[in-house]
Backbone:
């Protein structure tokens, strides 16, 4: 067996270290590098790759299936992808921010970049960008799906879309991804965060039917309810206020608390 | 001379004498303390994990950080690299708090736990992520793989299927990515076969001889004894003894010294250990002679 021990270890000769590298040691790691690394971590394991493929596959499948059933209506087909995205994007967010703690790779990551807030920022961006990219992908798939369904079923296609509604819909997808990130950052435990993520809609359904106070609570805090007007393309001020309240409750506050937790946590 | 001169040199004070070349990086403060623990204590609730730990590691030397399980070795190393905060005192690397360095990975190579890897990532991918983070060319990945003796095929397997020995080699490869001037290794010999241990001894010796400061923790006395110039013994969070390997082992062998000093830590209060053994002892000469073979 030939291991390195069989020959003299030459540490300095093959080293690519140059004056540049020496200077680089005195320069902070550029954020784009952290972003590149954290994006790469999303797909460089088999499980990460499977999640990515499942998301792409589900978006495409849901758009096509809806087309076959509901007929060639572009905006309806796009909106259908929201079911897949609303389910999977929070999970992606949760897994992204909790991953380092599950496998204790934080030990390596935070040793290379001790400014932990930069790592957290670099971790949060890829799922948010994925939400935008997958929303665009859904629109892209919906166009040929609408055309094909129209041709096959011999029904005139409905191409009308409200740009604002699609924008709002995309924004809604970004929000659910952000909610997953925030919940994950707060708990730093994927199973707990996923269970809470999937049980809250049930909880709101119950709370909303309790009494008038419960209904009001759900109207203001259930992100699923408050984000719904986004997809209509015209949002009233009071709807905006409700959305802002629920965003603060589910995204801003847990994210801030989670960030403080990550910054202070003893990494073991 | 490490301790005394290291203190005076202190953070920020650069004694620009002949710079030591190691990994292409100038070491601040010449041969003074590259790693310095200054009265570091760590308290968890009522338990004192570390109690007034003070020692230095000089450039060009291998320092063995010895202690029984639970003595506080890992806690001290985590504090050193900024993963944990000391309750009091401070630890510096190259004259700076670790987290205060702009890009510490290019100066300091760290292996804290070879097992802390995503099992689904390949060894090569682990190193690639590190290389991207540090802004190194991808060719560096192949170089460090060669250096630690992981084959091309092994590097393309996922870490979940690695033996502990292979994980240690991967961890050391990762630590060497940035051609560091300082190496901090927690229990790197765990899980290595005799061949691997021999290899690691040579690697650490070569690195130290080229000017690196190496701090490695272990409970494997004989392994440390054969490679370290300087030993810091710790038990129950306190430095029990420090000095050159020769001084600590003089006359009775390192193991004897170790067992005597750490007896109370293993058996707990009320044991037969002599009362004096809890006090911090300086074996042999004064700590000023502590750099051992440094600069040899």
Residues:
């Amino acid at each position: 067996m030939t291991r390195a021990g069989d020959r003299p270890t030459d540490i300095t000769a093959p080293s690519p270290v140059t004056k540049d590298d020496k200077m680089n040691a005195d320069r902070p790691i550029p954020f784009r590098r952290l972003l590149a690394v954290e994006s790469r971590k999303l797909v460089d394991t088999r499980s990460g790759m499977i999640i990515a493929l499942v998301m792409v596959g589900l978006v495409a499948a849901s758009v096509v299936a809806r087309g076959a059933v509901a007929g060639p209506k572009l905006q309806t087909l796009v909106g259908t992808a929201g079911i897949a995205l609303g389910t999977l994007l929070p999970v992606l967010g949760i897994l992204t921010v909790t991953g380092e703690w599950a496998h204790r790779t934080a030990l390596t990551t935070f040793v290379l970049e001790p400014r932990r807030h930069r790592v957290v920022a670099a971790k949060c961006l890829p799922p948010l960008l994925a939400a935008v990219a997958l929303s665009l992908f859904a629109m892209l798939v919906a166009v040929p799906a609408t055309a094909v369904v129209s041709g096959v079923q011999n029904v005139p296609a409905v191409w009308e879309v409200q740009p604002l509604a699609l924008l709002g819909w995309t924004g809604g997808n970004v929000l659910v991804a952000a909610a997953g990130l925030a919940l994950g950052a707060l708990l730093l435990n994927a199973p707990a965060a996923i269970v809470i993520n999937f049980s809250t809609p049930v909880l709101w359904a119950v709370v909303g039917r309790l009494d008038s106070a419960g209904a009001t609570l759900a109207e203001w805090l259930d992100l699923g309810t408050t984000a719904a007007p986004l997809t209509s393309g015209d949002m009233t001020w009071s709807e905006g206020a409700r959305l802002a309240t629920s965003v603060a409750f589910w995204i801003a506050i847990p994210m801030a608390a989670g960030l403080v937790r990550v910054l202070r946590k003893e990494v073991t | 001379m490490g301790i005394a001169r290291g203190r005076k040199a202190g953070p920020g004070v650069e004694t620009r004498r002949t710079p030591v070349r190691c990994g292409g990086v100038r070491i601040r403060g010449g041969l003074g303390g590259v790693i310095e623990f200054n009265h570091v204590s760590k308290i968890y609730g009522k338990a004192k994990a570390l109690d007034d730990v003070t020692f230095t590691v000089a450039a060009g030397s291998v320092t063995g950080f010895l202690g029984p399980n639970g003595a506080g070795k890992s806690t001290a190393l985590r504090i050193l690299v900024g993963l944990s905060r000391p309750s009091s005192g401070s630890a510096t690397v190259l004259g700076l708090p670790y987290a205060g360095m702009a890009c510490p990975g290019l100066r300091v190579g760290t292996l804290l736990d070879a097992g802390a890897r995503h099992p689904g990532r390949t060894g090569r991918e682990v190193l690639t992520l590190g290389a991207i983070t540090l802004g190194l060319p991808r060719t560096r990945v192949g170089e460090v793989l060669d250096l630690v003796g992981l084959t091309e095929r092994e590097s393309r397997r996922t870490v979940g299927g690695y033996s502990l020995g292979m994980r240690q080699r991967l961890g050391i490869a990762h630590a060497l990515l940035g051609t560091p001037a300082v190496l901090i290794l927690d229990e790197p010999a765990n899980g290595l076969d005799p061949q691997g241990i021999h290899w690691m001894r040579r690697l650490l010796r070569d690195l130290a001889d080229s000017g690196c400061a190496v701090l490695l923790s272990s409970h494997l006395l004989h392994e440390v004894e054969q490679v370290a110039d300087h030993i810091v013994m710790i038990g129950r969070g306190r430095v029990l003894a420090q000095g050159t390997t020769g001084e600590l082992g003089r006359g009775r062998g390192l193991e004897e010294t170790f067992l005597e000093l750490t007896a109370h830590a293993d058996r707990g209060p009320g044991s037969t250990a002599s009362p004096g053994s809890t006090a911090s002892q300086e074996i042999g000469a004064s700590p000023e002679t502590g750099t051992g073979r440094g600069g040899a």
User: Anything to note?
Assistant: Chain B touches chain A through 60 residues (CB under 8 Å). The radius of gyration of chain B is 19 Å. Residues 107 and 261 of chain B are 34 Å apart (CA to CA).
